[in-house]
Amino acid sequence: MKFYVCIKQVPDIDAPIQIKNGNLIQDTDRTVLNAYDASAVEEALVLTEKHGGEVEVVLIGPNQAKETIRKALAMGAHKATHIETREESYDSSVYASILASFFEDKDYDVISCGKQSQDTDAGLTGSMLAEHLDLPYSTNAVALSAQNGQLRVKRQGDAGQELIALPLPCLVSCSNDMNEPRIPSLKGIMQSKRKPMETIALDALEIDESALEAKTAVTGYREKPKREAGQKFEGEPEETARQVARLLDEEANVV
C-alpha cells in the first residue's frame, strides 16, 4: 500500500502563551509535530508493516519545519516531501489547494491526515482536499484496516462508532484516539538523516493565485471567560428536582 500522510508543524501546546491587545504571543521556537498527524503516521506505518508498502509524509511550511519532518521519518516513514513556503498563516482552503496541486500527478492508495491541527482546531483541510481530488473519504477515524482491496474505517460519530468501507484510492482523517504514536528510537533518529527528503518551492506547483488567498481570517484573540459558579440546591429531593426542572425549562431552555 502506498500511503501519503499530510503532516503539519504546530506550536507546542504546553508552551506558555499570552494574549496582549488581541494578539496571541507564543514561543515560536517550541514547535512540534501535530498530535493528530502523528497518529495518522503511526497507523500508516502499522498497516504497511502488516501488508507491505511505503509511507511518505508531506508538509507545507517554512524551512525550519524540516525538523518536524525528520521526526516523522525517525518514526519510520520512508521518505518525505517538503513544500517550502514563507507564509505560515494559511487557512484550510489554501492548504487544501496546495496539496491538491501536489497530488494531481501522484499515485497512491491512501492519503491520510490528522482530523484537525492543534493550533487552530479547524478540521477542514482533509475534507476540502478530498473534494478537490474527487476521492471517497471518512473523517475522525479511530481504527483502520485493509481488507479485500478496501480501507475499512472505524470512525467516531456523534451517536456512536460507525464502520465504513472505502474503495481505493481514498482519503481519511485520523483522531488522536486511534493509537499511541511510537517514540523514535536512536536507530530511527540516525536513519532519518539518510532518508530522502525532496524540497519543492511553492512557486513550482501550478496553483492559481486566487487559490492562495485565505477565505477566513482571525480578527483577534481573547481570554476564555471564567466559568460561572454553579448553583447549589438544598432541601428534599422532590423539591430540588422540581427547582432544577423549572430552571432548565425557564432559564436554560433545554427542556
TrEMBL record:
SMART domains: ETF. Residues 221-240 have a biased composition (Basic and acidic residues). Keywords: Electron transport, Transport. Residues 21-209 form the Electron transfer flavoprotein alpha/beta-subunit N-terminal domain. CDD domains: ETF_beta. Residues 218-240 are annotated as: Disordered. SUPFAM superfamilies: Adenine nucleotide alpha hydrolases-like. Gene3D superfamilies: HUPs. Pfam families: ETF. GO terms for molecular function: electron transfer activity. Belongs to the ETF beta-subunit/FixA family. This is Electron transfer flavoprotein subunit beta. It comes from Fodinibius sediminis. The lineage of its organism: Bacteria, Pseudomonadati, Balneolota, Balneolia, Balneolales.
